[in-house]
Design a protein that fits this description.
Number of domains of chain A: 2
CATH topology of the largest domain in chain A: MetI-like fold
Order of helices and strands of chain A: HHEEHHHHHHHHH
CATH class of the largest domain in chain A: Mainly Alpha
Helix content of chain A: over 70%
Strand order of the largest sheet of chain B: 6-7-8-3-9-10
Strand order of the largest sheet of chain A: 1-2
Low-confidence stretches of chain A: none
Distance between the termini of chain B: 35 Å
Structural class of chain A: mainly alpha
Shape of chain B: globular
Number of strands of chain B: 10
Order of helices and strands of chain B: EEEHEEHEHHHHEHEHEEHH
Bound molecules: adenosine-5'-diphosphate, magnesium ion
CATH class of chain B: Alpha Beta
Strand content of chain A: under 5%
Largest interface: A-B, 17 and 27 residues
Largest sheet of chain B: 6 strands, mixed
Low-confidence stretches of chain B: none
Structural class of chain B: alpha/beta
Radius of gyration of chain B: 18 Å
Oligomer: heterodimer
CATH architecture of the largest domain in chain A: Orthogonal Bundle
Mean pLDDT of chain B: 92
Strand content of chain B: 25-35%
CATH topology of chain B: Rossmann fold
Radius of gyration of chain A: 23 Å
CATH superfamily of the largest domain in chain A: MetI-like
Number of domains of chain B: 1
Distance between the termini of chain A: 42 Å
Number of helices of chain B: 10
Mean pLDDT of chain A: 91
Chain lengths: 291, 250
């Protein structure tokens, strides 16, 4: 029995080690593949023209691979989504953590989790049939497929992450801080914004970064409702094209081994760097909380 | 006069009768100790004095507590003003996770105090009154959480002193501290007595004997005996008090 147990343990242990290493190896392989294909592009084109080029005409002759409009498209949609989801998300987290009664709290938390489970295509679809016509009508635009529509829908996608992680951070603030504030005569609201908010700030910040990370990598919903025009946007009310949507839309038609094909990988590298940096920052803050 | 007059106070946690018909008069500029075995309602009584029990939804109270001619149990009581007047120090030091300086200005900010004194002066005076100034004058920007436990507890007292309360409530303020720190906090209490009425809960009888002028002995939610500390410790009138003091229970 003991011997069998030991053998069993040995195999299970090895299995776990293998699974763990495999997942790391896959990530490294993906990264190497991405780097190799993407960097090939820069054998033919200069990095400067790529990043600062204002025109993305992959199919014209000569083709132009200026990625600036795509970066700005992503940035604009993301900033718009942040402007909506951060205040709403943080306020919502405080509401759930501090104000609502325990029964309602359970209901709301479940609701938030359900919101996180909605596939992005569905969010995109709902946005397309409801939000897009509304934006068109309200702002008297030729089309409702704009950065604004994308921002609003992405805010929906970032909210569950922001709310649930920020709520955890707020709930984790020791009760004695709040007690101390109230005993000094602070109102509940003063205790929230002068003490609890400060104490939970690193966690809330991490929540925001993870929310943004989800938004910036999102593809399906933005492709469906932002209009996909690869021009440098000036306002939120214009169609934009994001980095993600570009890859998704064009990868199918790009001929393998062509400049266009490598250019899309180079776009992938940019996206990778952006999400990596954001997650890295979020991680630093999450670790700071644990200490 | 900052006496606290308690008249027929009853308190229930839901159905549990935690304070039974407590009546007493707590005297101004004196230290009053509340002693008794664990779970007998000492903290509960203390927390009535600045209505911290209101945070617990199941609490129900009857009776009167009069401070400055006002019944603080009445629904119209301004809790913000009451808690400014009656400050509380907790069992476990609980400075805010902010700088030393901000811990002290917190109360000033929430009460919108703008006296002629600058915040800097108030911070200095408050820290001096708890004998922390010399240790911390160069560390005002430091996080309060980096201080020693004793310093944290002193800071919590300084934070109250800054808003000029009249009564200080202390719930086992030394139970997280070592004997040396405890002795120093006790000295501080005697020092503070000149300006404040102090009510201290302690399960440490020696502490009550050392610092207090009056002692109340509680048992199972009832106030058994309340008298001069000297009398209580030398000539207790009730058998239960004597049993407790001689270590027969608790
Ligand atoms: N929030 C609460 N809900 C229900 N019962 C409580 C609550 N707080 C205290 N009690 C009960 O009230 C009694 C007195 O508690 P407490 O005042 O904390 O005692 P002490 O400070 O003397 O140890 C105890 O029996 C305790 O179980
Ligand atoms: Mg207690």
């Amino acid at each position: 029995m003991n011997k069998i147990g030991k053998v069993k343990e040995f195999f299970i242990e090895k299995l776990i080690v293998i699974c763990g290493s495999l997942s790391i190896i896959f990530v490294i392989l993906i990264f190497i593949f991405l780097a190799r294909e993407g960097l090939t592009f820069f054998k033919y084109e200069s990095i400067k023209d790529f990043i600062f080029g204002r025109n993305w005409y992959p199919l014209s002759n000569p083709a132009r691979f200026g990625v600036l409009p795509l970066i700005l498209g992503s940035v604009m949609v993301t900033l718009g989504a942040m402007a909506i989801s951060i205040p709403l998300g943080v306020a919502c987290a405080f509401y759930i953590a501090e104000i609502v009664n325990p029964k309602m709290k359970d209901i709301l938390k479940t609701g938030i989790e359900l919101l996180a489970a909605i596939p992005s295509v569905v969010i995109g679809f709902v946005g397309m049939v409801t939000l897009v016509p509304m934006v068109k009508k309200i702002f008297h635009l030729p089309t409702g497929l704009t950065a604004l529509s994308g921002s609003i829908m992405l805010a929906f996608m970032a909210m569950p992450t922001i709310v649930s992680i920020a709520e955890d951070a707020i709930t984790a603030v020791p009760k004695r801080y709040k007690e101390a504030a109230l005993a000094l005569g602070a109102t509940h609201w003063q205790a929230i914004y002068k003490v609890i908010l400060v104490a939970a700030a690193p966690g809330i910040f991490a929540a925001i970064m993870l929310g943004i990370g989800r938004v910036i990598g999102e593809t399906m919903a933005v492709m469906m409702i932002t209009g996909n025009a690869a021009v440098i946007p000036h306002t939120l009310l214009e169609p934009v094209r994001t980095l993600t949507a570009t890859i998704a839309a064009e990868m199918g038609e790009a001929i393998r081994g062509s400049n266009h094909y490598y250019a899309l990988y180079a776009v992938g590298i940019i996206l990778f760097i952006i999400t990596f940096v954001i997650n890295f920052i979020a991680d630093i803050f999450l670790h700071r909380i644990k200490k | 006069m900052n006496d606290i007059i308690v008249e027929n106070l009853n308190l229930w946690y839901d159905k549990f009768h935690a304070l039974e018909n407590v009546s007493m008069k707590i005297n101004d500029k004196k230290i009053t100790a509340i002693i008794g075995p664990s779970g007998c309602g000492k903290s509960t009584l203390l927390r009535v004095f600045n209505r911290m029990n209101d945070l617990i939804e199941t609490v129900r109270m009857e009776g009167k507590i009069i401070i400055d001619d006002e019944n603080i149990l009445s629904p119209e009581t301004d809790l913000v003003a009451l808690r400014k007047k009656v400050g509380m120090v907790f069992q476990r030091p609980n400075p805010f996770p902010l700088s030393v300086y901000k811990n002290i200005t917190f109360g000033l900010e929430i009460h919108g105090i703008n006296s002629e004194d600058s915040f800097d002066n108030i911070v200095e005076n408050s820290l001096k009154s708890v004998l922390l100034w010399d240790d911390l004058k160069d560390k005002l920007k430091k996080s309060a959480l980096e201080l020693s436990l004793e310093q944290q507890q002193r800071l919590c007292i300084a934070r109250l002193v800054a808003v000029k309360p009249e009564i200080l409530l202390m719930d086992e303020p030394c139970s997280a501290l070592d004997p040396v720190s405890t002795a120093r906090i006790e000295e501080l209490m005697i020092e503070l007595k000149k300006n404040y009425s102090i009510v201290i809960v302690t399960h440490n009888m020696q502490q009550a004997a050392r610092v207090s002028d009056f002692t109340a002995f509680m048992y199972l939610g009832e106030l058994i005996e309340y008298n001069d500390t000297n009398n209580i410790f030398t000539r207790p009138e009730k058998k239960q008090t004597e049993d407790y003091l001689t270590g027969r229970y608790g």
